[in-house]
Amino acid sequence: MSGTNRSITFESGQGPIVVLVEPQLGENIGMAARAMANFGLTEMRLVAPRDGWPSEKARATSSGALHIVDAAQVFDDVTAALHDVTLAFATTARERGQMKRVLSPQESMREAVAEFSAGGRVAILFGRERSGLDNDEISLCDAITTFPVNPAFASLNIAQAVLLTGYEWFRTAHGEALPFAGEIRSPRAPRAMAASFFDYLEEELDRVEFFPPDKRPSMMRNLRDVFLRRDLTEQDVRTLRGAMRALILRRRRDEAQGRDEAPAPDEA
Description:
Elements: E1 17-21, H1 26-38, E2 44-47, H2 56-61, H3 66-71, E3 73-75, H4 78-81, E4 87-91, E5 101-103, H5 105-117, E6 122-126, H6 135-139, E7 143-145, H7 158-174, H8 191-207, H9 216-228, H10 234-261
Helix pairs in contact: 1-7, 5-7, 8-10
Organism: Saliniramus fredricksonii
Protein name: tRNA (cytidine/uridine-2'-O-)-methyltransferase TrmJ
Subcellular location: Cytoplasm
């Protein structure tokens, strides 16, 4: 729940109706509702849920998407659930041999956006946990939508299928802008600042005899490359220099303490 911000009001507008056909477990209904809420979908319809409705298990697993669970409508069959729908997609992971268009989620959600623009209503059908949608139910839909998944393990949990479809809907309807951006608060370090740091690093590495004499130039070039490959900012250089200074001062204190504690020559 770390990404939930109840102070934000998001106007999702129209979105496809999610129709779950004979869902077996209340937990899966709740998780599907959560996936819907992630991407601004608000209307859920249930066709003959096995364990009846309402379901406390669905409410418990919705992770706060109670507005979807509590408003869900229940229907006896798919035909009734689609009574006011003008465009319907059936989700399936299996080829059915039906004379039906097969679309990717991206393609189907582009059609959904166009249908809403024309004043229509759109639904996406998701089948039973064990067997999915049957061919008669698929025949009631305009097209099939399926996902590019591992063909040897193509079965998706209902909530996973809703999540993937919801993502494509949100991306198509609302754009691909990310909810927040990384901010570089420090300007890129001037070359003189970086050079000063490298001189400091080189001097201290010489002090501890880090470089083999024959490899010193190439190793120092490699060290410069390591740092400059990531576009050092001023803050980066200050942090690196401060960390090195702390290590160096600690080493020098330890060395001085060792000399103070060493016995005088006439005491040895």
